[in-house]
Amino acid sequence: MTRLAIVSKEDCKSKDCGQLCIKYCPVNLMNYKCITLDEKNKAVISENLCTGCGICVKKCNPWNALKIINLPENLDKDVTHRYSENSFKLHRLPLPRIGNILGLVGQNGSGKSTSLKILSGEIKLNLGKFGDETPDWKEIIRYFRGSELQLYFKKLSESNLKVSVKPQNIDRLPKVVKGVVKDLILKVDERGIAEELKHAFNLESVWERKVSVLSGGELQRLAIAAALAKDADAYFIDEPTSYLDIKERMRVAQEIRLLGQNKIVVVVEHDLAILDYLSDQVQLYYGESGAYGVVTAPMSVREGINVFLEGYIPTENMRFRNEPLKFKKTDLSTYSGDRLYPLISYGKMIKEYDTFKMEADKGDLFSGDIIGIIGPNGIGKSTFAKMIAGVEEPTFVEKEIELMRKRIILEDDDEEDEENEFDLSLTLSYKPQYLEFDETMTVNDLFAKIDPAIVNSAFFKTELLIPLNLEKLLSHTVETLSGGELQRVGIALCLSRDADLYIIDEPSAFISAEDRIMVGKTIRRMIMHRRATGIVIEHDLLLQSYISDRIIHFEGEPGVYGKASSPLSVKDGMNSFLKLQNITFRSDKSTGRPRINKLNSKLDKEQKSSGKYYLGT
After folding, report:
1. Percentage of the chain with pLDDT > 70?
2. Are the C-beta atoms of 121 and 160 separated by less than 8 Å?
3. Span of 399-413, 496-510, 524-538 with lowest mean pLDDT
4. What is the pTM of this model?
5. Cα–Cα distance list, 503 to 389, 404, 431, 533 (Å)
6. What integer is the mean pLDDT of 405-420?
7. CA separation, residue 161 to residues 102, 165, 168, 255, 566 (Å)
8. Domains of the chain and any CATH numbers
């Protein structure tokens, strides 16, 4: 075994902590310099001298700046990049090929975006060497001799490979790009397909708008269109489906598949159904977030995704997760709530704006009920949820929204026919689609604003902090969090409040496929515990079918008219919605996970003719 020492420079408090890691390190006490301080007074650990005793890690609590990890020795020879001493390192690389769309999937922080930066030339890989030992291109090319990457890096080093990149964090786009959507697309349109992209990505309504006023979904479609407009040899697309509805995701996947017929295309994607649909091969990432990542050999799409869910790689005899990830209802809480008396009952509702109208059929929501809401962007999903919560007033309502818990009748044998009434107004906890917090605050401060005692609660730690992997983020400021980390914080903040109704808007945005299962289980477990009602607005249909008890689907014309169905069973709701989208899902024989059928394939035609658009579990 070899040791990997990780030091978080952000969390290291060597000026304030008394340098306990140095004082108590057994190797340092023997007058060897195992732990020292750099020029910025931050800890540096010698991995050659470290014995792996873990004393420094314990003494660093509660700052959690140090991490000592035992690694298999056979990984030493496969280091392709390391940012610096005691920082993240990447083992191996993806293998891009012309005419073969390569999908990458794995835990956040395992090196997928780093791989794209290396392959696109944004980062020059260093084979784990830095400082004076940093290798030149000649040494790098020699290292990959005999592999497909040798020719790839030779072209990259000679500037004979033109690349186009769609970045992960599209919310930063307005900060670096100014002007109008039309001008931006025309400026980068090297293939002469600006008009085609405008229609393909539904950009007509925003064609003359400034980039600064676009929504998340509009920014995403703009970023993908701009990347595809360039005439490149290789296209690297990082998380293309965040903020997009299922129809937009399918449109993006189809455009990427057309592009991949004669180009190098590498896509990082966490929506497993879309990854399955658009990829020809997949490569998995495993390791420890922020510490190290390992890239597997290429696999077929079905095999690769099933291996990822299983958590075991047969070809390497490597188990990288203790338990398989299962998209099966039987793995969730079986509590179904009290189905006799609804927590919330509402009649037909209408909401009218100047240019938009939304209608909703009547329905009942029960204690312990999780309602999944699916439909296109801009069709009224969030407006519907806010009307249920009483945040928005309907223009017309057939029957006032009733809160059945407003009246509690206590029976007392000693007092005849006495009724005690308690006004229990509906308490709402809302996680919006776009999260905005004071960037100077720490995660701990955000939770303290809700309840100063909550962070010290054993229940909070067991049910939210540990499952959502937030313990080590408590001392981090908001501005240092990644998109996925910020999303998990937002979900935890929402669920930490004691409420009757939880509205959670797009919980999967920027979260890895692995974490989505954990997020789904956490949301469900907390809502069951509170005996509350949950409304989850989500475009990842695999996650939605996994977490929801019932489905409300929307139809209509985005931005003009939307209509919400009554709550339906997951099977009926998904079937009705997918029929409107002209998409069919089959069920994987091994795992039961829903898989998208290729358009006009044999299975697609068979399911449509029988009216069975959804065959998921």
Report:
1. 93
2. no
3. 399-413
4. 0.87
5. 9, 19, 6, 9
6. 42
7. 18, 13, 22, 22, 53
8. 2-71 (3.30.70.20), 342-410+420-581 (3.40.50.300), 584-617 (no CATH)
